[in-house]
Every structure is written in C-alpha cells, then in structure tokens.
Amino acid sequence: MRAAARVVWAGVAVLALGTAGYVVIEHVSVFDALYMTVITISTIGFSEVFPLSVAGRAFTMVLAFSGVGIMLYAVSTVAAIVVETDLRKILGLRREHRVIKRMTGHIVVCGAGRMGRGVVEILRHREVGMVVVERDPECCRGLEGESIPVVQGDATQSDVLLEAGIDRAVTMISSLAEDAHNVYAVLLARQLNPAITIIARAVEEGAEERLRLAGANTVMNPYRIGSMRIAYTALKPTVIDFLDASLPGTDQELELAEVPVRDGAELVGKSLAGAQVRTRFGVIVVALRRGGTSLFNPSPNSQIEAGDVLVALGPVQAIEGLEGACE
C-alpha cells in the first residue's frame, strides 16, 4: 500500500510541476498546460498544442525524461503489487487445499450464516478440526482471514463436499438457510460417507421428518429450542443456570463432556466406585453409554468396559484428568 501511495504522489507531483512550468514559461491556460504535460510524459507523440519557445522546448525535454522514469516506476510497482497479491492468494489457496486433503476425522460445517458461524466459533474455541463449506465469497474471505479451512461452493454439490473431505469426516453439520438445501446436502453426505454422523438444522415446522428420512442422525429446530429455553428460564431458572455453566463461553470452569474409554485404558475392568472416579478426579458420571444403550445415573458398581462413553460433569481440568485415564 505504501508503494502504491508513492506512485500516486509521484504522478501528481509530475503533473503539477509540468502544468505549472508550461503556464509560467509559455503563458498558456492551465488546461492547455495540463494537456501538454500529459501527452509529453505519456510519450503519445501528438503535435504541440501551442508553439514552444527555446525555454519551453528545454523544459519539455526534461519533463519527457522525468515523466518516462515516473511511468516506468509506476508500471513496475503496480505490476509487482498485482503479482505479489495474486501469488500470495494462490499460495494460500494451495496451502489450504493441502491442509484439507490431509484432514481426517474432522467436522464439515455446511453454511456459515448466523447459526453456522456460531457453531464454527465453538468448534474453533475447542480446537476441533473442521472445514467450512460456504457460498458467499465475502464470508469465505473472512473465514480465511481467521485461518479457518473453508471451501467456497454449494454444499448440495458432491464435488464441493468431496473437496471438504466429507468422505474422511466423522461428522457433518448442515446449517443451510433452506430446508430443501439441507435435505439434499444430507442425502449427498450419506451417499458419499455412509458412516458419517449428520446433524441437521430444520428451518420450518415439519422439516424434521424429511431430514431424518434423508439420513440425518439428529435434527434440531433452533426456534423450538429457543422457545423451550425461554420457557424453562421462567419456570426453572436455577436449572438453566446450572446447564449454562456446562457450556463454553461462561465464566465458570464447568464442563459436561463425553469421555470415550479406549481399549487398554487403566479404568477398563473397574467399577465406578473401584476407579474412584468421583474422589480421584472430582467429576460426576451422570450417564454411561454402551453401544446404543445409555444408562443414566449409573450405580457405583457399574463396570467400565472398553468402548464405553462416560458422560461426566465437572471442572475442565478434572475432565482432562479423566480423559487421560480413559485413553
């Protein structure tokens, strides 16, 4: 930007000096002097606008040489800026494409509108690998500026989803503006990756069933959830405050997390009481999921097996300690 400013000011200075010189030497109008300056420094070669004296011709020669130098400087500077900008853009896109091609087990977020953007912010806060698919160029530039992998395109096109690594992703979140687009995106994702977990947003009433039939594992209606939240805040404010504390972005270090138990982890084969989960880690196991079955409020004698998922509530650092024991 500084180089471009220098070019502009140098050009203005040459035009001003040339115009003033002809006005003073040849006593002509400002317009004629400006026109003579322009055709001289641009080396167009038109005939003289007015008869030149010896002093005027000498001034014209000096102006021509300095003008050519300014023109060459301007052209070379502008060309360098354009080439550098394009090169940075090309290298940035190539680097981003390489990053996306190496990603696996990530989340594909389709749509970065108001809701999609909120999802992206939470995933970035949790440092979760993700790729955003968005049509709006301005929105894509904003995401690129924040170093968020993004694919510009239509999420209802298979080549766009494949570019985002849908075949290697573990989850897709479809948050497009229209239900029809969400249905088609879900159908494509299910076809391209049968094992993927799909979470879809329903915009209108009645769209939930269509999205489930298309292949979505979970369908959420934000308006319904919002109305329920408002109602329960009025009816059970303490419960809502407690739930809020387990969400990111609050000032309390409390988290409700899913902790998978890996094969060979030190807790495998122990009961919740025997592993001393509550006293050792300072967390509460509110549910235990095994296969497709979830056991809420499991008893202290419940055995922990490889492949189980512990739904635990506690401080962030305590959750991290439990995760370490389950790996």
Provide structural commentary:
This protein is α/β, with parallel strands linked by helices. The protein folds into three domains: 2-96, Helix Hairpins; 104-226, NAD(P)-binding Rossmann-like Domain (Rossmann fold, 3-Layer(aba) Sandwich); 253-325, Regulator of K+ conductance, C-terminal domain (Alpha-Beta Plaits), CATH 3.30.70. Helices cover 53% and strands 15% of the residues. The chain is built from twelve helices and ten strands. It has helices at 2-26, 30-41, 54-102, 114-125, 137-145, 158-163, 179-192, 207-214, 222-235, 237-244, 277-281, 316-325, and strands spanning 107-110, 130-134, 150-152, 171-174, 197-201, 218-220, 254-260, 284-290, 293-296, 309-315. Helix 1 (2-26) packs across helix 2 and helix 9 (222-235) packs across helix 10. The longest helix is centred in the N-terminal third of the chain and has 49 residues, at 54-102. The two termini are 51 Å apart.
The CATH C-level class name of the largest domain: Alpha Beta
CATH architecture of the largest domain: 3-Layer(aba) Sandwich
β-sheet strand percentage: 5-15%
- By oligomeric state, this entry counts as single chain
Contiguous low-pLDDT stretches (5 residues minimum) are none
Structural class: alpha/beta
Q: Helix share of residues?
A: 40-55%
User: What is the overall shape?
Assistant: elongated
Number of strands: 10
The SSE order reads: HHHEHEHEHEHEHEHHEHEEEH
- Mean pLDDT across all residues, rounded? 83
